[in-house]
Specification:
Protein name: Carboxypeptidase regulatory-like domain-containing protein
Organism: Rheinheimera salexigens
CATH topology of the largest domain: Lipoxygenase-1
Structural class: mainly beta
Strand content: over 45%
Number of strands: 56
CATH architecture of the largest domain: Sandwich
CATH class of the largest domain: Mainly Beta
Amino acid sequence: MNISMKWLSTAAMVAILAACGGSDKDNTPDSLYKLSGTVSGLNGTLVLAVNTNNITINNSGNISLGSQFTSGTSVNLSITSQPNGQSCQVSSASTITFANADINNVAISCTNLQYNVSGTATGLERPITLQYSYGAQTDSTEINGDDNFTLPHTFVYGNEIDFNLPPAIGHNCTITPQNIVITENVNNLEVNCSTFGQISGRVNAYNTGVALNGAQVEVFVLNQDSEPVIIQTVLSDDNGDFSVKGVGYFDRITLRATADNYVTRSEVVRTSELNPDTTVSIGMLKVDFTETFAANEAKEIIDPNTALRITLPANAFVDGQGAIYNGQITAAITNIDASSDPAIMPGYYLAIDPDSGEEMVFESFGALNAVFSDSNNNPLQLAEGSKAQIRIPLAARGVNPPATIPLIHFNEQTGIWDVEGEAQLISDDQNRKYYAGEVTHFSTWNADYLFESVNISGCAIDNQTQLPVAGVRMISDGVNYIGRSVAYTNVTGEFSIAVRPNSEVLLSIRDADGQSNTMRVNVAAGNVNLNNCLTTDQGAMIVSLTWGANPRDLDTHFKGPTIADSLTDRFHIYYARSSSTVEGVTMYLDVDDTSSYGPEILTIPRFPLPGRYIYSVHHYSGSGTIYQSPTRVEVLLNGISYVFSPSEDDETSGINNTWLVFEVVVSNDGTVELIPIDSYTSVRNNDLPAAVNLTPLMQLPPKVMVD
């Protein structure tokens, strides 16, 4: 009985203890776990939310995100604050649950935000370069014109960028701001440019004056290494006009004009602070003739009208890649005889002396232009090692031609001629003289004599103010030799221009800022100092008459009112009355040529009265006709060139011996209008029809002919 009771008491105690929670092991707290991971690419401060707890992270590397997590606990990870200039994200799972273990694979990756930099540009005539530096790196981009631009690189937060605009031809440019620090996209850069130096011009057919629409004009200048670089290409409009702004200031700017069926033409001009804007007339010669032949056959090209000839070997031409060309070749050939007008020769009459390397003036004895192209009109050139024989006809006005003469070719980009070889004076079976030589490439080839020049020195003043005129262009054309020289006046209006010794020249100012009368100067063996200044007039009209060997003598006639708008009271300028003064304005026939070619030059400083004026050409003596000669009249008015030639033939040695060329209508406000007439009449009726009926018929006095 006692034993049983003892057992029951023990069992009861066990039951009571069980009800109270059991052993010490069952009473231990849950295990706690850690959350950790890594951050990569961080360059600032980010805030990571771990459930509701925000943790600030300042560096890349290992991170601890807590150590009090129990098994079964879920954690949401989110970035509540991004670092400046970066985008960070949880690249591992953003929601995780603990399962009786630490979690150490949380991954956060950060990348830099990329910012664009852009702006606007105004005032550009051609692309300019923008340089920008950030850190140790310097880059550049080209801004192509007046428009929005964006830098090709992107930048990161905190990048400091410095901007620089290197000098650009013909442009003064600024950029605002010059320095920025990247904190966001930038779109407020401003590039503002102004230009300096401008060329305005007109492209026309030299012989007829017809405007050439769509002629391509390339503008070349010399860079710091004296190498030609093209700065712009423009096309002429319906009137043949073109304009190039922002050309800068250069002593020599070469304009190369090309047009279908015309000889490539290069004109040389200058701009400066004294004369920032200039005008130019580009008169293009029509190609004389073309001929097509097979490249794999030897060819002799013969001009039926002159002694010009080109002899070519077979397989002599290469294309632009230097490969031998085997197809059909078209040759465009032109004889260039500057006897009547030195201006038809491209560029200045300057060549590089091969001995000294210096520029020298030369006299021309004839030239030719030859261009060869493939069946697609792509240019061809003689292959290396190939040679061609050429014959350059002696110029009609070539005086005392040397037996041997240098051959020079024209550089269409520099505007200078280069000596390459020599030519011999020979006569063909028709007793026509020519210079024969050998060439290794084709362009414009000239048979020329380089000479040691002397100088004509003088000054230029404004006719109205009598003050010196700076920066205007002086021109000297040879009378007894074929050549032209160009110079510019300095700040005090003085000039020095190179001419041939023992010569006679026609000296004048021909510039958009003023024109002068033409002075005939006799030059001996030494320098010449002029006693009187040439005078310029802003509104001057210069009329130049040129023609061929026949007729021997053509004469200028110019008539106009001595009373405003009068058709009865009129002056008459011609060879027997070479000047007329009306209202204090003296108008001149500067030159009267009686032995073929011309020029005869009429200078009208300004029109003295409103009314109607008329210019005509009289066939005074010699065979042939005005049309056949051919005759050319060029008018320079307000810096613009106008060319007239007769459109039809007539027997001008008979009754209709005068070509009425143009009328000038001057209004009361001084506006000048040039109106073509282009008809034939008698010299006795060489005035406006309304005036002819009101005035007596004129009788011409005889004149002395000069050989």
